[in-house]
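Replying to the earlier thread about multi-chain prediction with a worked example.

Input:
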Amino acid sequence: MVDGATAGLFLDAAGMKALGAAIAIAVTGYASAIAEKDIGTAAIGAMAENEGLFGKGLILTVIPETIVIFGLVVALLINA
Amino acid sequence: MRLLERLWGKKPSRKSDKKKGTSNYPYAVTRVRAMKSKLLPKESYPRLLNMGIDEITRFIQESEYKNDVDELAMKYSGGDLAEHALNRNLALTYDKLERITLGELNYLIVAYLKRYDVWNIKTLLRGKIYNASVEDILESLIAAGEFTYTSMSELAAKATYQEIVEALKYSEYYPLLQKFDGTNLAYIENELDKMYYTGLFEAIGNPRSKDRKLFAKVVRLEVDVKNLINLFRLKKAGVDQLDDIMPLMIEGGLELKPEKLAPLPYEEFVNELQRTQYWDAISGVAGPDITSLITLESRLIRYYLESSTILSHVSPISVVPILDYIIHKNNEVTNLRIIFRGKENGLSDELIKDQLVVI
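Result:
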């Protein structure tokens, strides 16, 4: 049996919101990190041979950053 | 962190040299693709054909081979300079590939590049048997395998082939080289090649992942092309005894079955080839009235090069694009060598052009 007081302790609405926001940021941040890892190393590989590719490499590297921005938006919406 | 490393590293089932997780595929593949884009474009070959040897050396000096030509210009000149520069560049490029790769990728590339060890041993033995000068031998050595240029120069400086074989005592080739008695060079060379391919197939193992399957496919395709070229040469020379042909064939081809093709007379042999994928490449030049194999051979090599490029697009982040680069780089060096050696010996442009494999 769970009494009301304990339930309130665990399922506190504000706490749950904060947790949701945290998960949104953490998971998307991790996902962009994984995606950027490969693209970043590939960009460095291309740049090592041809320095002119710096601009393209940089842009391609930050494209997965959108994932964490979506996470940020979701986190802000939850807390709004 | 150390605890994690210990947990990951010490498990016996995870062989660090074969594990995909430790390889740096995206980095190596993109870097190699950028390197491939720097290979000579096909438009430069007609221009090269119109040049003299000094102009070609100059052209090479202004391209990717600049450092090599500059470095060696003090020691050599003319055709020798270009030859040494090309070999040095090839060796350094392959060495670079070994340096920039890790894990499984490195393991496969090192296994593939062992062909240059075999090449060098063959060159050394051949040079000693025919009493070539040390300079001549050095000119043909390509230090792209496991042996360094310095160690091979030492071998080249030895007086007889027995001393070379003795010096290779701790290499994997020693058991075979022991059989060398100064007269059976052809046999030893064939066996070295077969040994190389057996070793390479062992390194590939029983491929399960897609990229290893493709890697194996490219190697098998190469074996087929080599066997086919040899079969054509043998057929043209009138050899059709199974016992004579089979020792010259390399096992592990993709589609061809040399034991079936070997005993056939020329026409049936060609008919049999029509069922294979190689027919499209050679259909125009493999008629019964074939006089020269030069075009046929360059077309087969061209087919092999093109296929490897296509396969490298099937699995973009894998070892295949790197293998593709290795093959194309080798082809470029061979082409340049054909051009200036041809020029040096006064061959006609037409003849030189036929030998080139331009993609």
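The two ends of chain A are 34 Å apart (CA to CA).

Feel free to reuse this layout for your own posts.
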